[in-house]
Amino acid sequence: MNTTSRLFSSAVLAVFLALTSLTSAVAEPKLKSLRGSEIQGADTESADPFKSEKDRAPIERNYVQQPPLIPHKVETYTVTKNFNKCMDCHAWTRYKETGATKVSLTHFKTRDGQELSNISPRRYFCMQCHVPQADAKPLVGNRFQAAEGIGH
Fold it and tell me: Residue 84 pairs with which residues in a beta bridge?
């Protein structure tokens, strides 16, 4: 290894070590309550990502057979082949307790109309059809009109 390469490597290492020591020397910002007292960061609990949230008023549907929109946040919801977070509230065994809408009977039928005792695999992944509602303006202009008789 020649002298220039060694000097360059040493300079890069020195800069890295200096930056590392600077970032570790910077203290965590102090949190204060509304009354001005200091809040200890280690003593605070993190928010529960699965804490139930009150539903917002539903946005009306625009056409017949439109799947209802989800009136709450779902960013942290897990739906895998073994677990469906939505069913913690919307299952027939839990909906009264949680105040959520129960899963429709149509979700318990196979493609051939056979009734199952559990949700049909084709209806298990809720967010294939149901999406969180947002009262947002369309990104692209359009002339869409809601179907007549749907409540508009």
Answer: 79
The DSSP element (H or E) to which 14 belongs, if any, is helix 3-25
Cross-strand partners of 39: 31
Q: List the helix and strand counts (H, then E) for the chain.
A: 3, 2
Q: Is 43 buried (19+), middle (13-18) or exposed (0-12) by CB count in 10 A?
A: exposed
What does the block give as tokens for 31? 């949190």
pLDDT along the chain (152 residues), means of 10: 76 74 59 74 54 69 88 88 92 92 92 93 92 84 82 54
Q: What is the pTM of this model?
A: 0.57
Give the SS3 label for residue 50: coil
Residue count of the chain: 152
Q: So where are the chain's domains?
A: 70-136
Asked whether 135 and 127 are in contact (CB, 8 A), the reply is no
The pLDDT of residue 124 is 92
CATH topology (fold) of 70-136? Flavocytochrome C3; Chain A, domain 2 (1.10.1130)
**85, 130, 83: which is closest to 106 by C-alpha?**
130
SS3 108: helix
